[in-house]
Amino acid sequence: MIEGRKILGSIGLGILTIFVIVAVFAPYIAPHDPHQMYRPMEHPSSSHLLGTNDIGNDILSEIVYGTRVSLFIAFVVSVISMLVGTSLGLVAGYFDKVGFLIMRVVDVVLTIPRLPLIIVIASFIRPSIWNLIALFLIFGWTMPARIIRSEVLTLRRRYYIDATKMIGGSDFYILWRHILPNVIPLVVVQFIMEAIHVILAESGLCFLGLGDPVAMSWGMVFHYAFECPIIYVSDVWMWWMLPPGLCIVFTVLGLTFVGYALEETFNPKLKNPFGGMER
Amino acid sequence: MTLLRISDLKTQFPTPDGIVRAVDTIDLSIGERETLGLIGETGCGKTVLGLTLMRLLQSSTKTEGTIIYKGTNLLKISEAEMRRIRGEEIAMILQNPTTSLNPVMRVGGQIAEAIRLHQGLSKRDAKEKAIEMLDAVRIPSPSIRVNEYPHEFSGGMKQRVMIAMGLACNPSLIIADEPTKGLDVTIKSQIMKLLKEVTEERAMLIITHDLGVARELCDRIALMYAGELVEYATTGEIFEDPLHPYTRGFLGSLPSNGLVPIPGMSPSLINLPDGCRFHPRCGHATELCRRKHPDMIEIEDGHFVRCFHA
Amino acid sequence: MHQISKLAYYFVIVLIILSINFSLPRAMPGDALSYLTDPGADIPVRMTEEKREILLAYYGLDKPLSEQYITYMVGIIRGDLGWSIYYSAPVLEVILGRLKWTLILVGTSTAIYITLGILLGATSAWARGRKRDMGLLISIISISSFPSFFLGILLAIIFGIKLDIFPISGAQTAFATYSSPLEEIFDILHHLVLPAATLVLSHIGGTYFLMRNSMLGVLGEDYIMTARAKGLSERYILHKHALTNALLPIVTMTAMTVGFMIMGTIFVETVFAYPGIGNLLYNAVSYNDYPLLQGIFLFLTIAIVGANFIADMIYIRLDPRVNHE
Ligand SMILES: Nc1ncnc2c1ncn2[C@@H]1O[C@H](COP(=O)(O)OP(=O)(O)OP(=O)(O)O)[C@@H](O)[C@H]1O
Ligand code: SF4
Ligand SMILES: [Mg+2]
Questions:
Q1: Which chain B residues have a beta carbon less than 8 Å from that of C222?
Q2: Residue C189 contacts residue C240 (beta carbons within 8 Å)
Q3: Which of A153, A239, B141, B290 is the most exposed place for a label (fewest CB within 10 A)?
Q4: Given an 8 Å threshold on Cβ–Cβ distance, is A125 in contact with C28?
Q5: What is the mean pLDDT of residues C105-134?
Q6: Which ligand is nearest to the CA of B245?
Q7: Which ligand 2 atom is the nearest neighbour of the CA of B288?
Q8: pLDDT score, position A267
């Protein structure tokens, strides 16, 4: 079991590293300029490893650059969500009155189904990656806020936090020195969950035609492939649809593996099958 | 007549940090209708010993030795045969009644299921029997309470339910793990009274840290330290003539003797000290104690001690 | 008491959703409704002068906001969700016309994925750490990593195009005449297989993991040890003690995953051109049919929130401890 955890975690980390490298060094890795037009609908060849699309862009280069867009959106949303969510969660866990208010807002936002709302809003506004990021942020902060708060409530009950208070530590100092380090593992797991969510949701929006047509993410490449009337004829789907789809799958898989490994490490209750026994 | 004879019993848990030797080479016997008290500090392996007798530990556990119950070695029989023994021949009352009762099942159902299984009674008859059992452990208006859920019972009442569950199939041996832990004085004395009645008709192994409980209920007492027995004698001998320094320390920590705790901490069961396991805490330790591991010796008739200088 | 406060909570949620729906077209920075008030703007597809009038009257943009709000609320209560530009019909009518298919799709898939998820989750937990558990775990993690539209397309390509055993589009064969109702049912089921399989596969992870974790927690509980100490068989303990306890937290969470599944229809119905509400939403997005879009948003959102509400109510009924407090 412990071995399984380590193996999965390393595989996940490996997959993610590859994608990050591709994103960072996209200009050096992509064989062509993704906006350059060649003969459309070319089959794979040595000059276009994954052929060209309906307007003649090199598909491989589009996907390589698409890695940047997809990962960028997921990364920015997750980082900001965690910053906001963690801060609000800490505050909410530490100051009861404000906490109550924040938690009611969290309850409401979490009860409203996010995908339909994002879809309607996205249809009303012009989709751009910044608009998409803003949309995801409306929801992203809520789960970390809720989870961090309940952890803080547990931590607060531990004696040492009261003890610090008695010798005159300020509230901020206590939050920073004693509580924050304890909630970091939770934040990391939440970060991964949010990144998974955003990768999938963004690709879904693109699939419905609500992506940013200028910034080609994996989802947009997939969308244009799906819209192409002859996608199933011959094997066009194999080089136009499968690769961006698999990029999404492997990114999610990598994140899930890492998240799973971390969770098993941080959550010892799940580790011991006899955890319920009092000893 | 000997009902249960344990020889050379070892229970070990392989863990990532090393092997936990929770029960180490234990010899014990319990006669019919005899009540044996098993006493020791927290973490010394008492519960594990009980669970080993019931064969209730996870499959990765290593168990060696023999447990002869009514002439059969419980470590050699099949799981199906063992299931027939559990509840019907040997019942175990687990420590902590609050977590040991299923929260979403009526207490009547929890008592009745063992009866139905072992005695083949119909649902209705088993329920009648469950009401009888609740009555036997002095739960007021048992025919109403039989339909209630565990959270509707107080701590003492839950302990009574646990005892009723143990008694349900009239087993020859009951293992009771910390039956009085966490109860206030009045409730505790009521439960002790109840247990006293129970001990009159069957053999019992009572696991406890509470010497008062042991003195009241037990015929003989075994003291356990770091996975092994260190002293084993009749209750009278243990209280009047304790020979092992650990036993004396334990007696000294009784409220009536001024609550002087034994200094130091019990060792980790992964890294046991060389020589006598008690030597780091023992006031009488000598060079011999540090080097050699003492054997259990019979100092007087039926009085066993594991100490060089007893 | 508990139930009443829950009821009040969900009432507030529905009010909030209605209000969001009201403010969306009016507050958006884009000129979603400019074509209604600005004579120079591009008029969307199939928009006649007459329809413009109907829409203008529906939104009532010339009136004060408070009056618009009241009119809107009254309209909702009377079932008036506006006029679909693309379909030239009342939004509610268009939605109800599609409802049947979505209900069939979500209904069958939900029944299958909940049962399957619970069974697999329990199996996994029971075999914890052994080969069977790890195999299930990794397969389900992998399947859950597929966006549902991608999974659907792969199934369509493999089973619809390459193997050609299931239809990949529509809910019934087009222009079919059936000789018996049985034949029709068979045709409908035939068309249902791939979309339902896609929904089940892409959502099973939720229930599976909930069940596995819940069950693992329960198996470590002392009362399971008590049950073993009574000599009960493993199978009996699994059914009578472990499952009931493990299922309790699942109920609430599962209804939440039903919500996810309703959202999943948006993609799956689009992939398989399945004529339900999800596919309708896709059309509404493609044709900028805002009133229809908003109508579907309301409809789906309230359905999902409703599922959560029902789950909460069931939970209160199931757990004896909640009732008591
Ligand atoms: N399944 C297990 N795996 C690994 N170690 C275990 C397991 N069960 C028990 N132990 C260890 O074995 C030792 C003995 O535990 P046990 O529960 O028997 O103590 P105890 O004497 O009953 O203590 P208490 O009085 O607190 O109940 C402890 O150190 C415990 O950590
Ligand atoms: S053997 Fe030595 S160390 Fe151990 S109890 Fe006896 S006197 Fe103490
Ligand atoms: Mg114990």
A1: 94, 96, 99-100
A2: no
A3: B141
A4: yes
A5: 90
A6: 2
A7: 2
A8: 64
What's the farthest any 2 CA atoms get from each other in chain B? Answer: 67
Shortest CA gap C176–chain A (Å) = 25
Q: In which region does residue B275 sit, left (phi positive, over 0), alpha (psi from -120 to 50) or beta (all else)?
A: left
By Cβ distance, the residue of B47, B58, B95 closest to A273 is B58
Q: Give the residues of chain A that fall short of pLDDT 70.
A: 1-4, 158-171, 267-279
| Residue listed under structure tokens 């045969």 | B81
Predicted confidence at residue A191, as pLDDT, reads: 94
CATH number of domain containing C200: 1.10.3720.10
Q: Which helix (H) or strand (E) holds B173?
A: strand B173-177
Is C155 found in the same domain as C277?
A: yes
Check whether residue C104 and residue C51 sit in a common domain: no
| Residue C43: band (very low, low, confident or very high) from pLDDT cuts 50, 70, 90 | very low
Which is nearest to A192 in space by CA: A147, A254, A248?
A254
For chain B, what is the mean pLDDT? Answer: 91
| C125's tokens | 């937990």
- Cα(B137)–Cα(B183) distance, rounded to whole angstroms? 16
Ion ligand 3: residues, Cβ under 5 Å: B 47
Would you call C320 and B104 a contact, using CB atoms and an 8 Å cutoff?
yes
Quote the ligand 2 centre to B276 CA distance (angstroms): 6
Assign domain B2-89+172-305 to its CATH superfamily: P-loop containing nucleotide triphosphate hydrolases (3.40.50.300)
Which residues on B lie below 8 Å from C240 (Cβ)? 105, 113
In a domain, C87, yes or no: no
For chain C, list the contacting chains (3+ Cβ pairs, <8 Å). Answer: A, B
- Are residues C119 and C258 both part of a single domain? yes
Looking from the CA of residue B246, the nearest atom of ligand 2 is: 5
The four Cα atoms A62, A67, A69, A71 give a dihedral, to 10 degrees, of 170
Domain-embedded: residue C7: no
User: Which ligand has the minimum distance to the alpha carbon of residue B294?
Assistant: 2
Interface ipTM: 0.90
3-state helix, strand, coil in chain C (%, to 5): 75, 0, 20
A124, A226, A234, A242: which to substitute to probe chain C, counting the most C Cβ within 10 Å? A124
